[in-house]
């Protein structure tokens, strides 16, 4: 495992795929010019649109997706590992999509994909309602990918609230780096984003890298931003604000092994009998 320079790209994706591709291109090039050899973009890099009919008129299947095609060319042109946080990709009969992440090698080849497992079906206190399951099909496979610097677990946004996913990536999958590209809402981001990312890092003794959407989007949704890199001890080593841009961090996967040696809780999991469910009528 060797150290490397990583960059997180923060965007405010719109309804325009062409506009989002242009923004992604400029920011990824900025990241590569800054010395990054691994670059991560946020969830729904290619398009953000809350209108299902208009969204599905725009979406394509994976082999025809223009954002993915451009990203593959960009990775090859710049010689970087490019992690597209997610794209909405038509699947099946085309009436639903997968929220799919892509890790692209410097050759332009796709080395791994991941479909978001946990879908955001939530009504917030301010009345905002999100029903991802109405548009997306949930994934069913935890993913860890081999990179030149070590093993990296892939997750997306709402997955962050399910610690057992990251535990499996770190313990069974051997990941020393965990990733959570996201589009957190502003209310949930202000309340939970930093705390949850730091918790996942501390629990697993792993680096956590999370590129985010940030700002007021064309569709009226506001996302929190604050892309973060957290070290295995839980320290925030890089953080963005709310605007589009790039942040950098030096990642040393060996630091994960050092932290796990100091606090080896990752390896102290024990099987146990779960508690009985509450009795009917019990208060």
The tally of helices reads 6
**Whole-angstrom Rg:** 18 Å
State the major sheet.
6 strands, mixed
CATH superfamily: Carbon-nitrogen hydrolase
The N- to C-terminal Cα distance equals 53 Å
Poorly predicted runs: none
> Roughly what percent helix?
25-40%
H-E order: EHEHHEEEEEEEHEHEEEEEEH
Strand content: 25-35%
Number of strands: 16
- What characteristic shape results from the CA principal axes? globular
CATH topology term: Nitrilase/N-carbamoyl-D-aminoacid amidohydrolase
* The CATH C-level class name: Alpha Beta
Tell me the strand order in the biggest sheet: 5-4-3-2-1-16
Oligomerization category of the chains in this entry: single chain
Question: What's the architecture in CATH terms?
Answer: 4-Layer Sandwich
